[in-house]
Amino acid sequence: NEGWPHLREVLELLNRLLADTNFKITLTTLSIVGDLLHRWGPQIISVVGAIVPGLVEKLGDNKIVVRQTSAKLFCHIFKIVQRLRTS
Asked: Residue 3 carries which DSSP code?
């Protein structure tokens, strides 16, 4: 990734933070992932697999806001992929 060569490592770190049991850390991490998706869009897709395991795990979280935020991030990822496939 020419724009940010360490993006995969950052996403791997964020994936580990998603496993934290602290609600605020989880929500802040999801927010950061969302910001990265908005900022980097298509460039992040090649390394987005580094965060998918944590996002999948959070789809089953006991807090609704965490489940909803994770689902929204997946929707955003799918939209980026769809735009890439149609362009």
From this structure: S
